[in-house]
């Protein structure tokens, strides 16, 4: 397993622990904790600076870990690019939610982009952005990638 895959596995293990147990310390340790931190969630939250990011992640941990649902996010690393001090990755997140009430299971995907910066030889998250993929978006994307007509004049 590559170093990049190990790092992503570490981040998502910490994220899943936060979602199921409400434990945030492992995920917080993955972040560079200063004003350059930013977080943009699929639900519309936009947090800038570590204090705001930490508060939002703690709020998510408190609410989701106490909800009658077991959530698990499985990352699929699509792209990793790095320079000596900065890196970004594009990930497809497979999200599984098993509800204790209502419909038994929900699955969906979202896209996620993380930016890392190297501090003292260790990669730390400085930005994380995810957004949901709706069925309409998937249909339009398919049409754009597979046109049914000739695009050449």
Question: Can you walk me through this structure?
Answer:
The chain is α+β, with helices and mostly antiparallel strands. It is built from four helices and six strands. Strands 2-1-6-5-4-3 form a six-stranded mixed beta sheet, with helices on one face. Helix 1 crosses helix 3.
Provide the descriptors you would attach to this structure in a database record.
34% helix, 39% strand, alpha+beta, 153 residues, six-stranded mixed β-sheet
Describe the structure concisely.
By secondary structure, this protein is an alpha+beta fold. It has 4 helices and 6 strands, in the order H-H-E-E-H-E-E-E-E-H.
Query: For the terminal residues, how far apart are their CA atoms?
Result: 47 Å
Quote the average pLDDT.
Answer: 87
Elements, N to C (H/E): HHEEHEEEEH
Based on DSSP secondary structure assignment, what is the total number of beta strands? 6
| Beta-strand residue percentage | 35-45%
Topology of helices and strands:
Layout: H1 3-21, H2 25-29, E1 38-40, E2 46-48, H3 50-66, E3 69-82, E4 86-99, E5 105-119, E6 122-132, H4 135-145
């Amino acid at each position: 397993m590559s170093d990049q895959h190990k790092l992503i596995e570490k981040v998502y293990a910490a994220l899943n622990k936060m979602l199921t147990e409400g434990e945030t310390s492992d995920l917080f340790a993955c972040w560079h904790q200063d004003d350059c931190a930013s977080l943009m969630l699929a639900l519309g939250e936009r947090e800038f600076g570590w204090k705001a990011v930490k508060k939002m992640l703690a709020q998510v941990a408190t609410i989701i870990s106490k909800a009658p649902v077991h959530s698990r996010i499985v990352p699929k690393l699509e792209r990793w690019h790095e320079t000596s001090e900065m890196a970004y990755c594009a990930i497809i997140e497979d999200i599984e939610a098993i509800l204790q009430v209502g419909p038994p299971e929900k699955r969906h995907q979202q896209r996620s982009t993380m930016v890392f910066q190297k501090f003292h030889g260790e990669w730390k998250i400085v930005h994380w952005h995810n957004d949901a993929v709706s069925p309409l978006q998937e249909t339009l994307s398919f049409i754009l990638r597979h046109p049914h007509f000739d695009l050449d004049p």
